[in-house]
Request: fold
Amino acid sequence: MGLESPDDAGVYRLSPDLALIQTVDFFTPVVDDPYNFGLIAAANSLSDIYAMGGRPLTAMNIICFPAGKMPIEILREVLRGGIEKVKEAGAVIVGGHSVEDDEMKYGLAVTGIVQPTRILTNKGARPGDLLVLTKPIGTGIINTAIKGNLASPELIEKAVKIMAALNKEAAEAMEGFGVSACTDVTGFGLLGHAFEMIEQTDVGLKIFVEKIPVIEGVRGLASMGILPAGLYRNKEFRKDAILELEKVDPVDLDILFDPQTSGGLLIAVKNEEARSLVDKLRKRGAEAAIIGEFLDTHPSKIILEK
Ligand code: CO
Ligand code: CO
Ligand code: CO
Reply:
């Protein structure tokens, strides 16, 4: 697969029934606890493999560390979190690379496999398909609150749990369902990634705003204007894709464009199968919901419905 239409990860066919999936992601700490940061960074890096319908096999650590300024124990804790998450994914860390840097950064380069006939790209949703989201949103707003010492310990704990959760279960749950497209929600926010599913296609997308699971407490923070800089960029970048933008509640719009760290999967699934997919996801502990419907009208546009 080429770079003309960017997807979650690169795919390279090795043989008629085996393809390699490769992806890389790393970033600066989003939470104060180094072990939790390791868990989150690893879960985030592994996510793009799941979004392609694949299974991770190996991972390599990418580490930037201010060796003179920070105790080495912090790095050990970050790596312990990373190893733990990779193990949970059923993959192994086979190496890595570290450089001295002023600011700590961590993530993984991950290699996975997929059957070429089972590759899921972000395009391919058919009119009538429903859109399923597998994790609640709002982690970018919470991370901003954490940086400003405005997040309660309970809220931090909740956000860590959501961000550290692998998309493995969700990816396994969708096997056997009529899934036409899949991606994960990360830096561009829910609407940014949902838009990628219909960008330059004949398909439109209606989003049921009230059905979107939002982490409790996020709305309050958003109303107070505690918003990450990336949110404004996301909104500016994609606002033209939204029909009748002026009618949308501004706080809703902010939350829908909030950049997510290690967000859930967005799954386009056959209308009549969506309910049972969501039931299956919920049984496995995911806060999943049907949040939209693909349309044969309004090509490449998003309609937000209260
Ligand atoms: Co992705
Ligand atoms: Co990525
Ligand atoms: Co994909």
About this structure: The chain is about 35% helix and 25% strand. The chain has a mean pLDDT of 96.
